[in-house]
Every structure is written in C-alpha cells, then in structure tokens.
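Per reviewer request, we include the raw input and output of the structure prediction for the construct analysed in the revised manuscript.
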Amino acid sequence: MAESEICLREEGSVLLVHPDYEKRVTFDWFSPEHWGASAQPVSSGGRGGAWFIDTGRGHVVLREYRRGGLVARISEQSYVFTREQDVRSVAEFLLLDRLVAMGLPAPRPVAAWYRKVSGFLYKAAIIIERLENTTPLAELIPVLDLADWKDLGATVRRFHDAGVNHADLNCFNVLVRGRSYFLIDFDKGRIMPVKAGEKWKAGNHERFARSIRKVAGNSVLESVWDSFMNGYNGSQSS
C-alpha cells in the first residue's frame, strides 16, 4: 500500500483511509445501520449493496462488493484472498487515488475495508466521495444531443490515453453533470502496461455499445455511436 494512506487493523478487519479523512473514518462507517436515516439505498444500476450517505460533513457512497451470475448462488459476497493488494476494495481504492492524482474525472476514494471470513475468503466494501449534482447516463440518453456524445467520447479517450482499463464501462457507470462526464465503479479496473496493445480499448467500446443497446435500443446506438467515436478519435466533424 502507499505510505500516504492510513491503515488500521482490528479483530480481523482492515481499514484503509485517505489522509484527508484521517481520524474521521471508523469501522462503523461501513455499516449502513450505523447511519440510520442518513443512509439511502442507491436505486440505479449495480446489484444492490450501495448507499448514499450524509456524514454530516459531506456526502459519500458506500458500496459492498457483491458477485453476479451463477457464482452468487454459492457465495454472494465472499471472494478468495490471495494477498492484500489484490483485495477488491484495496485495489479500487488505490486505483481511484491514482486517477484523481492524474486529473481524470473520477470520484476520490475515502476508505476501503475488508474482513477475512475464513482462512481464504474475505468480504469487502469501499466508500467514495459522492459526485454531487450528477445523473447516470442511462437516465439522460433521450435528451442528449450528438455534441454530448462527442464530449463523452473525448472523456473516455482521456482515460484510455492514461492506460486506464475500465472493466465495466456501461450507461450506469457514467455520470453526467451538464457537459461534464465522470466514470465510476472501477472494480477490477487497472492501468494497463504499454505492451498490452490496443485490444482492451476495443473491449471497453464493445461493452459500452452493448450497454447503450440494452438501455435504449439498437436504433439509438446507431444514431449516436459515430458521434461518440468522433469525440474519442478527436474528429472535428459531428
């Protein structure tokens, strides 16, 4: 872990805290019950297990790591532990910290938590700062114009130029504030080595295109995709 982060350990639980939140975050922050009415479930996207929280000194998002698909029937919240830096919450916390330091439009991490539930399994959660006055892209698709899609394409290009591979680029993981765009949920994301080539970028595009098609239909995808890619490629045409 980076030396600037604060790491606390207590009865099998580990807490990684951003220096700006030193002496504020406790293990209780990761329990929605601790917040009472100040914790409101996030309704859009994801698999549940996320809450908007008013801490009294700022707004944050608490998100538990949960599995999807068939494996969730066996263990919805447990993951195999290999080493601490590979724990889902720790890895995402450190990646977000790097993205913010690079000036990319992503939320700042507040704290990461995990607890071993057996010798080789763990549960995890992360808290990030809430990006105020934003709306998921999925809710705005009907009102966006082609210039908006071009701006979004340019934003995704900024991440790719920095080598950032978003593992789940979809319409719910893009937040919109006016003409500004932010990417969220970097679980399993990573900064790719130069030798990785370009294939992963095409994979991000394909996943995003499938999401647009699923949310808004193929006709919408066909009508906006050229503008998105024009923005991504830096084209002057709309």
